[in-house]
Amino acid sequence: MVTLKDIAREAGVSVMMVSRVVNRRYNEVSQENIDKIQAIIQKLGYIPDSSARSLSSNSSKIISVIIQGIDNPMASPYNANMLGHIISLIQARGYNAMVHFIDDYAEVTKHLRSWKSEGAIFLGTFDENIRQIQEDNQIPLIFTDSYSSVRQFINIGIDDYKGGVLAAGHFLKNGHRDFAVIAPHLHVSQLIQQRVAGFCDTAARAGFAVPPEHILEPYDFEEATDRLCALRGTVTAVFAATDICAIQLISLLKKRGRQVPEDYSLIGFDNLLYSAFSTPALTTIAQNIGQKARYAVDTLFHYLEDSSLPARSVVLDVELIERDSVKTIVRPQT
Amino acid sequence: MVTLKDIAREAGVSVMMVSRVVNRRYNEVSQENIDKIQAIIQKLGYIPDSSARSLSSNSSKIISVIIQGIDNPMASPYNANMLGHIISLIQARGYNAMVHFIDDYAEVTKHLRSWKSEGAIFLGTFDENIRQIQEDNQIPLIFTDSYSSVRQFINIGIDDYKGGVLAAGHFLKNGHRDFAVIAPHLHVSQLIQQRVAGFCDTAARAGFAVPPEHILEPYDFEEATDRLCALRGTVTAVFAATDICAIQLISLLKKRGRQVPEDYSLIGFDNLLYSAFSTPALTTIAQNIGQKARYAVDTLFHYLEDSSLPARSVVLDVELIERDSVKTIVRPQT
DNA sequence: CTGAAAGCGCTTACAG
DNA sequence: CTGAAAGCGCTTACAG
């Protein structure tokens, strides 16, 4: 292994001179030495040892991405996309990305500390543990899509409530009055709760409240589809709180002889790539995942540069993407 | 920050004693000291410094996952899934996963060396650079889905050729004779070439060779769909070398007024989650991504434990999953 | 079972 | 512009 010492010996200078050149502190070194040392670095293929650097300078150049769930959270295209963008952006800034799948929040601290992570970005629902995580780790922590009563925390999220409002509004505009909601993880995820609340509040305000038994939290999608089909009355419109849920629903309804949008109109949430390719193409609430990732990383580096800044959260906008999964019901004049 | 020294002072023992306890070398320490030291570790919330450990012991406990492409390679559900499984498995063994998106293979060495990665798993097409990467890095390197003329390299792949054979066989069995192939990255990816070769060889052997102009390498999918529709003759069956390609094709054909399977029968490759939910559900060649990830990680640790083992590659099996995207053509007896 | 010494490869802080 | 010294927090190798 080639070390600073090797370069120094070869160049006939001190280790410090080489260190300065490696770190581009060129104004502290004569041009002659810069040239000589760089040539030798090149020749010997010197690569700095990051762990030594981390130990002595107390800066690791590591950013951790903490993802909730240990059973392949990448099966979610949303997580996969966010992670992909985040890693790209971290790299582009010359930092290294360490990824951790976490179930037990106590693991978070262990991991962040042992590698001296300079900051962390969280994907998933950490709502309950945000306070504790923050107390244990005095580095910039960027949460995404979190809702928490903690006053000071940095969150990059979207306007989930508005998404629900838009979905309900679109159904109402198209003549729908009998609604159902399919909301995975409803009881644990405030994000899902917000989407559902936006939807239900809007429907109720228009005089068409969603009965509680029409709000389904799937145990699995097969079972939820059965429950949906078994609902009394004549539900014509279904709001699925995630696209993954919506896409599977289309296929499962089809298996039961029901068509979207003929039998059920459907609106999803997220605007994943596949939503455009389903049949029918899915009308959905779009969020811009690339933008969200960029905000998360930019915000993190913002705090890395100035840790005294006040905690500032970001709420990104959402919009309705109209495709083919909502049918218009023409009602007789009353 | 709490260090070994702090624990040692508090316990009235040497730093070495604490180090032994931390590393569970219990047979080298009296029970009395074990108990005392563990209690203090607990009380002070000691977390070992990984960079110090890496520097002094020359073992980092880091495994790098190198993924080809810098423009969000996670947009590919295949990559996302593999990465997810791989990270889970690396973690489960008490190692840390560092993820790097790479375009320039020279970056690989820089990254692996600077963090003293103990091993690496590669996703993507590194075929051309495998030899160089291996020469530069004397650690276990596990490639996936690679084809290379390098004699000694470890690859975890699937039987891509057989996948093509199965697809062609299924079409033939269902009465198809006029074929087209859509193969993204055909000219750069030997993996795709294998799939196509298996398909074309089988068709040709049955007397229904695929004309070269029927083998389409898409620039983008819109354009490829146009080219497919414009083909002379009466193509009835299309082999898409990836599911992503197949799913988009279904939707793009529909926009042009052509139905799958009525106008074109279609077989994909990979059996991604969404293949089951497309309309029609996609007949495809299945590979087991979880299994492939497991082999990759198991093989890596195998070599970590005994670096003298000979390079051994693994070829996993594939199978045809019949769904609804292939129609049977009944031909008049001749 | 226990501990003092040296060293991993780098940076910080200082003196010149 | 240059370099000698000390130290980051741990482990290795050795002596007892």
Structural overview:
2 copies of one chain form a homodimer. By secondary structure, chain A is of the alpha/beta class. Chain A has 3 domains: 4-48, Orthogonal Bundle (434 Repressor (Amino-terminal Domain)), CATH 1.10.260; 62-158 and 289-316, Rossmann fold, CATH 3.40.50.2300; 160-287, Rossmann fold (3-Layer(aba) Sandwich). Helix content of chain A is 42%, strand content 16%. The first copy, chain A, is built from 12 helices and 12 strands. Chain A has helices spanning 4-11, 15-22, 31-44, 50-57, 77-92, 106-114, 130-136, 160-173, 190-205, 221-230, 243-255, 289-305, and strands spanning 62-68, 96-102, 119-123, 141-144, 154-158, 179-182, 215-216, 237-240, 265-270, 283-286, 314-316, 319-321. The first copy, chain A, has a 6-stranded parallel sheet with strand order 2-1-3-4-5-11, sandwiched between helices. In chain A, strands 7-6-8-9-10-12 form a 6-stranded mixed sheet, with helices on both faces. In chain A, helix 11 (243-255) links the parallel strand 8 and strand 9 (265-270). In chain A, helix 1 packs across helix 3 and helix 10 crosses helix 11. Chain A is elongated, with a radius of gyration of 26 Å. At the A-B interface, helix 4, helix 5, strand 2, helix 6 and helix 11 of A face helix 4, helix 5, strand 2, helix 6 and helix 11 of B. Strand 2 of chain A pairs antiparallel with strand 2 of chain B. The first copy, chain A, binds a DNA duplex (16 and 16 nucleotides) through residues 1, 3-5, 13-17, 19-20, 22-23, 27-30, 33, 48-49, 51-58.
Keywords for this entry:
homodimer; 334 residues; alpha/beta; 434 Repressor (Amino-terminal Domain); Rossmann fold; 6-stranded parallel sheet; 6-stranded mixed sheet; DNA-binding
